[in-house]
Amino acid sequence: MSLPSDFFGRILFILQKYGVSFLNGAGKTMAIALVGTLIGCIIGFAVGIVQTIPVDKKDNPVKRGVLGLIKLILNIYVEVFRGTPMMVQAMFIYYGSSVLFGFNMSQTFAAYFIISINTGAYMAETVRGGILSIDPGQTEGAKAIGMNHIQTMVNVIMPQALRNIMPQIGNNLIINIKDSSVLSVIGVVELFYATKGVAGAYYTYFEAFTITMVIYFILTFTCSRILRHWEKKMDGPDSYDLATTDTLAYTSGLVKFPDPNEKEDK
To answer: Which chain regions cross the lipid bilayer (predicted)?
Structure first.
Protein backbone atom coordinates (compact mmCIF):
# COMPACT_ATOMS: atom_id res chain seq x y z
CA MET A 1 0.00 0.00 0.00
CA SER A 2 1.49 3.34 -1.10
CA LEU A 3 1.65 6.45 1.07
CA PRO A 4 -1.14 8.94 0.26
CA SER A 5 -0.13 12.35 -1.04
CA ASP A 6 -2.44 14.49 1.12
CA PHE A 7 -1.79 15.35 4.77
CA PHE A 8 -4.91 13.80 6.32
CA GLY A 9 -4.56 10.75 4.13
CA ARG A 10 -1.05 10.18 5.50
CA ILE A 11 -2.36 10.68 9.05
CA LEU A 12 -4.97 7.94 8.53
CA PHE A 13 -2.39 5.70 6.84
CA ILE A 14 -0.01 6.00 9.80
CA LEU A 15 -2.79 5.36 12.31
CA GLN A 16 -3.95 2.25 10.46
CA LYS A 17 -0.45 0.85 10.13
CA TYR A 18 1.12 1.93 13.42
CA GLY A 19 -1.82 2.63 15.71
CA VAL A 20 -0.79 -0.18 18.07
CA SER A 21 2.70 1.31 18.41
CA PHE A 22 1.22 4.66 19.43
CA LEU A 23 -1.07 3.00 21.97
CA ASN A 24 1.74 0.93 23.46
CA GLY A 25 3.94 4.01 23.71
CA ALA A 26 1.14 6.04 25.33
CA GLY A 27 0.48 3.22 27.79
CA LYS A 28 4.16 3.06 28.77
CA THR A 29 4.26 6.84 29.16
CA MET A 30 1.24 6.86 31.48
CA ALA A 31 2.58 3.96 33.54
CA ILE A 32 5.94 5.69 34.04
CA ALA A 33 4.28 9.02 34.90
CA LEU A 34 1.75 7.56 37.35
CA VAL A 35 4.15 5.26 39.20
CA GLY A 36 6.92 7.87 39.21
CA THR A 37 4.58 10.54 40.57
CA LEU A 38 3.22 8.22 43.27
CA ILE A 39 6.64 7.10 44.49
CA GLY A 40 7.97 10.63 44.13
CA CYS A 41 5.18 11.93 46.36
CA ILE A 42 6.04 9.35 49.02
CA ILE A 43 9.70 10.40 48.86
CA GLY A 44 8.73 14.07 48.92
CA PHE A 45 6.46 13.67 51.94
CA ALA A 46 9.17 11.80 53.86
CA VAL A 47 11.89 14.34 53.00
CA GLY A 48 9.60 17.32 53.62
CA ILE A 49 8.59 16.07 57.07
CA VAL A 50 12.21 15.41 58.07
CA GLN A 51 13.29 18.84 56.84
CA THR A 52 10.72 20.51 59.09
CA ILE A 53 11.67 18.66 62.29
CA PRO A 54 12.43 21.44 64.78
CA VAL A 55 15.84 21.57 66.42
CA ASP A 56 16.19 23.22 69.83
CA LYS A 57 19.38 24.22 71.61
CA LYS A 58 18.17 22.22 74.59
CA ASP A 59 18.11 18.99 72.56
CA ASN A 60 20.72 16.29 72.99
CA PRO A 61 23.90 17.24 71.01
CA VAL A 62 23.96 13.79 69.40
CA LYS A 63 20.39 14.24 68.21
CA ARG A 64 21.19 17.69 66.84
CA GLY A 65 24.30 16.39 65.08
CA VAL A 66 22.59 13.38 63.49
CA LEU A 67 19.54 15.41 62.47
CA GLY A 68 21.75 18.16 61.04
CA LEU A 69 23.71 15.63 58.96
CA ILE A 70 20.50 14.01 57.65
CA LYS A 71 19.06 17.41 56.73
CA LEU A 72 22.30 18.33 54.95
CA ILE A 73 22.20 15.12 52.86
CA LEU A 74 18.54 15.68 52.01
CA ASN A 75 19.19 19.29 51.04
CA ILE A 76 22.00 18.18 48.72
CA TYR A 77 19.66 15.60 47.15
CA VAL A 78 16.94 18.21 46.59
CA GLU A 79 19.28 20.86 45.18
CA VAL A 80 21.09 18.45 42.83
CA PHE A 81 17.95 16.96 41.30
CA ARG A 82 16.16 20.30 41.07
CA GLY A 83 19.23 21.98 39.60
CA THR A 84 20.08 19.53 36.79
CA PRO A 85 18.08 18.46 33.70
CA MET A 86 16.27 15.13 33.85
CA MET A 87 17.88 14.09 30.57
CA VAL A 88 21.34 14.46 32.12
CA GLN A 89 20.20 12.61 35.23
CA ALA A 90 18.91 9.77 33.07
CA MET A 91 22.24 9.40 31.26
CA PHE A 92 24.26 9.73 34.47
CA ILE A 93 22.22 7.19 36.47
CA TYR A 94 21.65 4.64 33.69
CA TYR A 95 25.26 4.48 32.49
CA GLY A 96 26.90 5.51 35.76
CA SER A 97 25.31 2.65 37.71
CA SER A 98 27.22 0.21 35.54
CA VAL A 99 30.53 2.08 35.58
CA LEU A 100 30.56 2.97 39.29
CA PHE A 101 28.77 0.01 40.90
CA GLY A 102 28.78 -2.72 38.26
CA PHE A 103 24.98 -2.77 38.34
CA ASN A 104 23.27 -3.03 34.97
CA MET A 105 19.84 -1.42 35.22
CA SER A 106 17.07 -2.48 32.92
CA GLN A 107 15.66 0.41 30.91
CA THR A 108 12.24 0.00 32.52
CA PHE A 109 13.63 0.06 36.06
CA ALA A 110 15.80 3.06 35.22
CA ALA A 111 12.75 4.92 33.85
CA TYR A 112 10.71 4.43 37.03
CA PHE A 113 13.69 5.17 39.27
CA ILE A 114 14.69 8.39 37.49
CA ILE A 115 11.17 9.83 37.35
CA SER A 116 10.56 8.91 41.00
CA ILE A 117 13.65 10.50 42.51
CA ASN A 118 13.34 13.58 40.30
CA THR A 119 9.71 14.05 41.34
CA GLY A 120 10.65 13.40 44.97
CA ALA A 121 13.08 16.32 44.95
CA TYR A 122 10.43 18.74 43.68
CA MET A 123 7.75 17.35 45.97
CA ALA A 124 10.05 17.72 48.99
CA GLU A 125 10.10 21.49 48.54
CA THR A 126 6.36 21.54 47.85
CA VAL A 127 5.62 19.57 51.03
CA ARG A 128 7.98 21.73 53.07
CA GLY A 129 6.23 24.85 51.83
CA GLY A 130 2.81 23.30 52.47
CA ILE A 131 3.76 22.44 56.05
CA LEU A 132 5.14 25.92 56.73
CA SER A 133 1.95 27.46 55.33
CA ILE A 134 -0.10 26.00 58.19
CA ASP A 135 -0.68 28.28 61.17
CA PRO A 136 2.04 27.59 63.81
CA GLY A 137 -0.72 27.56 66.41
CA GLN A 138 -1.79 24.19 65.03
CA THR A 139 1.61 22.72 65.90
CA GLU A 140 1.69 24.39 69.29
CA GLY A 141 -1.77 23.06 70.12
CA ALA A 142 -0.78 19.52 69.11
CA LYS A 143 2.35 19.66 71.26
CA ALA A 144 0.31 21.04 74.16
CA ILE A 145 -1.72 17.81 74.25
CA GLY A 146 1.41 15.64 74.16
CA MET A 147 1.90 14.85 70.46
CA ASN A 148 5.43 14.37 69.12
CA HIS A 149 6.56 15.74 65.73
CA ILE A 150 5.53 12.68 63.69
CA GLN A 151 2.09 12.49 65.34
CA THR A 152 1.60 16.20 64.77
CA MET A 153 2.50 15.88 61.09
CA VAL A 154 0.32 12.82 60.44
CA ASN A 155 -2.75 13.81 62.44
CA VAL A 156 -2.84 17.61 62.34
CA ILE A 157 -0.58 19.30 59.81
CA MET A 158 -0.46 16.99 56.79
CA PRO A 159 -4.24 16.62 56.34
CA GLN A 160 -4.42 20.41 56.04
CA ALA A 161 -1.25 20.78 53.96
CA LEU A 162 -2.35 18.05 51.55
CA ARG A 163 -5.24 20.15 50.29
CA ASN A 164 -2.90 23.10 49.72
CA ILE A 165 -0.39 21.07 47.70
CA MET A 166 -2.88 19.03 45.66
CA PRO A 167 -2.57 21.38 42.64
CA GLN A 168 1.20 20.90 42.64
CA ILE A 169 0.86 17.12 42.81
CA GLY A 170 -1.38 17.27 39.76
CA ASN A 171 1.08 19.61 38.06
CA ASN A 172 3.92 17.16 38.69
CA LEU A 173 1.89 14.38 37.08
CA ILE A 174 1.29 16.52 33.98
CA ILE A 175 4.98 17.40 33.82
CA ASN A 176 5.99 13.74 34.15
CA ILE A 177 3.69 12.71 31.29
CA LYS A 178 5.50 15.17 29.03
CA ASP A 179 9.03 14.89 30.43
CA SER A 180 9.03 11.10 30.21
CA SER A 181 9.97 11.74 26.57
CA VAL A 182 13.56 12.49 27.66
CA LEU A 183 13.93 8.85 28.69
CA SER A 184 14.22 8.00 25.00
CA VAL A 185 17.93 8.88 25.33
CA ILE A 186 18.46 5.63 27.27
CA GLY A 187 16.24 3.60 24.93
CA VAL A 188 12.99 3.53 26.91
CA VAL A 189 10.23 2.76 24.41
CA GLU A 190 7.66 5.34 25.51
CA LEU A 191 5.47 7.48 23.24
CA PHE A 192 8.21 9.77 21.93
CA TYR A 193 10.59 6.88 21.19
CA ALA A 194 7.84 4.93 19.43
CA THR A 195 6.99 7.99 17.33
CA LYS A 196 10.57 8.33 16.12
CA GLY A 197 10.45 4.76 14.84
CA VAL A 198 7.13 5.33 13.07
CA ALA A 199 8.28 8.63 11.55
CA GLY A 200 11.52 7.12 10.25
CA ALA A 201 9.76 4.27 8.47
CA TYR A 202 8.22 6.55 5.80
CA TYR A 203 9.97 9.85 6.64
CA THR A 204 6.63 11.27 7.76
CA TYR A 205 7.97 13.22 10.73
CA PHE A 206 5.41 16.02 10.60
CA GLU A 207 2.43 13.67 10.39
CA ALA A 208 3.73 11.25 13.03
CA PHE A 209 4.51 13.94 15.56
CA THR A 210 1.19 15.64 14.88
CA ILE A 211 -0.48 12.43 16.06
CA THR A 212 1.84 12.27 19.07
CA MET A 213 1.14 15.88 20.01
CA VAL A 214 -2.60 15.16 20.00
CA ILE A 215 -2.08 12.04 22.14
CA TYR A 216 0.00 13.97 24.70
CA PHE A 217 -2.67 16.66 24.86
CA ILE A 218 -5.43 14.08 25.41
CA LEU A 219 -3.44 12.43 28.21
CA THR A 220 -2.59 15.68 30.01
CA PHE A 221 -6.03 17.25 29.54
CA THR A 222 -7.82 14.15 30.84
CA CYS A 223 -5.56 13.91 33.89
CA SER A 224 -5.96 17.61 34.67
CA ARG A 225 -9.77 17.34 34.53
CA ILE A 226 -9.78 14.30 36.81
CA LEU A 227 -7.47 16.02 39.31
CA ARG A 228 -9.59 19.20 39.23
CA HIS A 229 -12.66 17.11 40.04
CA TRP A 230 -10.75 15.46 42.90
CA GLU A 231 -9.78 18.86 44.30
CA LYS A 232 -13.43 19.93 44.34
CA LYS A 233 -14.34 16.73 46.17
CA MET A 234 -11.72 17.53 48.81
CA ASP A 235 -13.16 21.01 49.23
CA GLY A 236 -16.49 19.54 50.35
CA PRO A 237 -19.88 21.24 49.95
CA ASP A 238 -20.16 25.02 49.74
CA SER A 239 -22.59 25.12 52.68
CA TYR A 240 -22.79 22.73 55.62
CA ASP A 241 -23.95 22.44 59.20
CA LEU A 242 -21.57 21.64 62.02
CA ALA A 243 -22.26 18.08 63.10
CA THR A 244 -22.06 17.61 66.86
CA THR A 245 -23.80 15.68 69.57
CA ASP A 246 -23.49 18.55 72.06
CA THR A 247 -26.96 20.09 72.20
CA LEU A 248 -25.58 23.13 74.03
CA ALA A 249 -23.24 23.87 71.13
CA TYR A 250 -25.66 22.99 68.37
CA THR A 251 -29.02 24.64 69.00
CA SER A 252 -30.40 24.89 65.47
CA GLY A 253 -33.99 23.71 65.53
CA LEU A 254 -34.04 23.10 69.28
CA VAL A 255 -35.22 26.52 70.47
CA LYS A 256 -38.07 28.46 68.97
CA PHE A 257 -38.41 32.12 69.83
CA PRO A 258 -41.91 33.67 69.78
CA ASP A 259 -42.80 35.78 66.79
CA PRO A 260 -44.21 39.13 68.00
CA ASN A 261 -46.32 39.38 64.85
CA GLU A 262 -48.15 36.16 65.58
CA LYS A 263 -51.39 36.43 67.53
CA GLU A 264 -51.64 34.41 70.66
CA ASP A 265 -54.18 31.62 70.54
CA LYS A 266 -57.03 32.08 72.95
So the answer is: 30-50, 62-80, 92-115, 182-203, 209-227
